[in-house]
């Protein structure tokens, strides 16, 4: 495809959404292509409906494999409706979470198997892999403390998980980063927001190289 697919990953409390909100206005002037920011689960109307089912705290009886399949279904619709058309138009697509999240959260966090979840998502995505992934890393206890400190709404299903769950998720992310150093760049998200945003911008500058506009 003509476009470029970039993902941002991180455990709960890493600050991905806040970093992306601050980063996007700084990034766009440096790229000749249109830049599209999207998210998972969600990003398209049907995918957003699936997101509501996944995260609804009333769905506590949801089986772990059901959850993984719903994430994959949401991802497939998002890919078909939003990501692939944007890439075909030559856009830079930046996605808040993608397959790595499912491998970490459902594969490791839920304990249903990282390879099994990866295989499921390879089917859902037809093997689409990001060109670059920026992984914002934060210790699980720090991330959960941040969430508690800034909470304004109700808990969703993932927020209700204990520290051990989030530690399994982070460990899986670190394994992914070690296994794919050509794609995944780890950024210390315990630093200030300004520092993290600057680090992300520097990595994107390095990635785009000579096409980066001053």
TrEMBL record:
<dbReference type="GO" id="GO:0005829">
    <property type="term" value="C:cytosol"/>
</dbReference>
<dbReference type="GO" id="GO:0006227">
    <property type="term" value="P:dUDP biosynthetic process"/>
</dbReference>
<keyword id="KW-0808">Transferase</keyword>
<keyword id="KW-0067">ATP-binding</keyword>
<dbReference type="InterPro" id="IPR039430">
    <property type="entry name" value="Thymidylate_kin-like_dom"/>
</dbReference>
<dbReference type="GO" id="GO:0004798">
    <property type="term" value="F:dTMP kinase activity"/>
</dbReference>
<dbReference type="GO" id="GO:0006235">
    <property type="term" value="P:dTTP biosynthetic process"/>
</dbReference>
<dbReference type="Pfam" id="PF02223">
    <property type="entry name" value="Thymidylate_kin"/>
</dbReference>
<dbReference type="GO" id="GO:0006233">
    <property type="term" value="P:dTDP biosynthetic process"/>
</dbReference>
<comment type="similarity">
    <text>Belongs to the thymidylate kinase family.</text>
</comment>
<dbReference type="InterPro" id="IPR018094">
    <property type="entry name" value="Thymidylate_kinase"/>
</dbReference>
<comment type="function">
    <text>Phosphorylation of dTMP to form dTDP in both de novo and salvage pathways of dTTP synthesis.</text>
</comment>
<dbReference type="GO" id="GO:0005524">
    <property type="term" value="F:ATP binding"/>
</dbReference>
<feature type="domain" description="Thymidylate kinase-like">
    <location>
        <begin position="8"/>
        <end position="197"/>
    </location>
</feature>
<protein>
    <recommendedName>
        <fullName>Thymidylate kinase</fullName>
        <ecNumber>2.7.4.9</ecNumber>
    </recommendedName>
</protein>
<dbReference type="InterPro" id="IPR027417">
    <property type="entry name" value="P-loop_NTPase"/>
</dbReference>
<dbReference type="InterPro" id="IPR018095">
    <property type="entry name" value="Thymidylate_kin_CS"/>
</dbReference>
<keyword id="KW-0418">Kinase</keyword>
<feature type="binding site">
    <location>
        <begin position="10"/>
        <end position="17"/>
    </location>
    <ligand>
        <name>ATP</name>
    </ligand>
</feature>
<keyword id="KW-0545">Nucleotide biosynthesis</keyword>
<keyword id="KW-0547">Nucleotide-binding</keyword>
